[in-house]
Amino acid sequence: MPETISPSEIKKVVSLSKLAFSDTEIEKFSLEINNIITHFDKLNQLDLNNVSPTSHISWRQPPTNPDEPHAWAGREEVISHAPAVVDGYFIVPKVVDKQEE
Amino acid sequence: MNIESVKNFTIEDYIHGFQKKEFSPSEITRLFLDRIQDLDPALHAFLTIDEEGALKRAKDLEDKKFSDAELPPLYGIPIAIKDNICIHGLQTTCGSRILQNYVSPFDATVIEKLKKAGVIILGKTNMDEFAMGSSTENSGFRPTRNPLDPERVPGGSSGGSAACVAALEAPVALGSDTGGSVRQPAAFCGIVGLRPTYGRISRYGLVSFASSLDQIGPLTRNVSDTITLFEIMSGQDERDSTCAPYPPFSKNDCPNEDDIKKMKIGIAEEYLTSGVDPAISDKIKKIIELLSEEGFEVINVSLPHTDYALEAYYIVAPAEASSNLARYDGVLYGYRYDHPINLQEMYTQTRSFGFGKEVLRRIVLGTYCLSSGYYDEFYLKGMKVRTLVKNDFDQCFQQCDILLTPVTPCLPFRFGEKSHDPYQMYLADVFTIPSAMAGIPAISINCGYYDNLPIGLQILSAPFQEAKLLAFSTYLEKRLLVPAPFIETIADRKESL
Lengths: 101, 497
Description:
The complex is a heterodimer of chains A (about 100) and B (about 500).
Chain A: H1 7-16, H2 23-40, H3 75-80, E1 85-86, E2 89-90
Antiparallel strand pairs in A: 1-2
Helix pairs in contact in A: 1-2
Chain B: H1 11-19, H2 25-43, E1 46-49, H3 51-63, E2 78-82, H4 109-116, E3 120-125, H5 159-166, E4 172-177, H6 183-189, E5 192-195, E6 215-220, H7 223-233, H8 257-261, E7 264-268, H9 278-293, E8 297-301, H10 306-324, H11 343-354, H12 357-370, H13 376-399, E9 402-406, H14 422-426, H15 433-438, E10 442-450, E11 453-461, H16 466-480
Parallel strand pairs in B: 2-3, 2-4, 7-8, 7-9
Antiparallel strand pairs in B: 1-3, 4-6, 5-6, 5-10, 9-11, 10-11
Helix pairs in contact in B: 2-3, 5-6, 10-12, 10-13
């Protein structure tokens, strides 16, 4: 495991996470995350070569439901909680600039 | 009637009182609402108090004029719900500014079941933001105090639920446990908290943090109420495919005292290390001695990977969280950053302003652990260690029926004591995380006090063996006779909290 993550790597991860931090915040986060990741080094003491990973606990094959639509009366109520709605559509800032059209 | 007169009540006692017309659901609801009004301005256990809804519900229940035989099992029982469990028409903030104005358009499966059983919902309780924390200091609104010592934390993340039950603002509450978030606050507040087997209770309507770990569990003042609530809430749900396809728990499956006495008790040295506060380890050793004297067979077992579970958890849980929390983008619901210049800025500013520090930290950590080049180094390793932790428990429960451990290595700590160092805070969950990683059931019960601070005993069993676990807990509760907490009032100090 790498011993430390650089602020530039943190910056990349912050961007992948759809977040935006100032340079000062990036510095602070780098220190905190590095402090946590240092502890992960402990896992290198274990021989994990022949161990299979457990992503989730399932006691039996997960059941499936019949592929049937269900009517749900909550549409208006759901839409009413959106930050911006016009004519039943969710409104977001323009995605494509004029020049690119 | 006054609040002190119900301090030792079980759900059964309330039901008998209703049947004998000693009091009505409206009177009981009023009693708890008044108590909330008295204490909560200093305690901060609730984020939403639904006074109007609760009183209307009590009246509606009374108007139905049930005969004794038809009375639903939780008729008129007031309950507080952690603010990450959806209730139709009430706010579900998850303790986060990003969901500050979010009103849930549906009921979680557990809420549907509880409503059908006759409960009266008093309100929604405070928590660490998105259940990420062990003290409620990460709440996006304000921390909750520990009713037993207002200068100390109530634990977390279900700290509001634990504090309100300990302070008797509600007789029972629901919380959720991802790495210890029901058991640790139950221990810090001196009450009972159950994390059931993964998949025993539907997660539909529980806002996701780490889906492979999240479980809903009750917080109560006695084991009997935990059994009653668990019986009603457990069972398969077609809306949650991770909900195990097994019949619901039934209290009739609990073994009798003769069979309880035949249970083999396991003690693991990994849980009684030098890092545990001697007040806690001494108390637990005394209980082990007591059980030996009573004829229980006590054996030493080993869970050699215990020490690695915490690190593996802090890879796996943030990885899942970074994915689950991608949905908060300001498009469909919740907070949106004002006047973004473009779509990208709307996403990044909404998330950066809407989430608190610990949530941001875990999103970044989780994204890092899943990112190209680091997946094998971190996430894959975390999942492999999870296998080893689970195997430890599988082997352990071939040798014993139940395992006794502390819930936490420390007594309730003071505000600010651990919040400056995230890793120190993570260590508060070191004994609750391994069982969460393995998906096995575990309960925290109050086994005594040290300097007026409660000590939590954790009892664990093999998956789906809650009948054994709860029967033994009932036995031990009767044997230890530790009083549930009761406070007259709460010192209104540190209003700035």
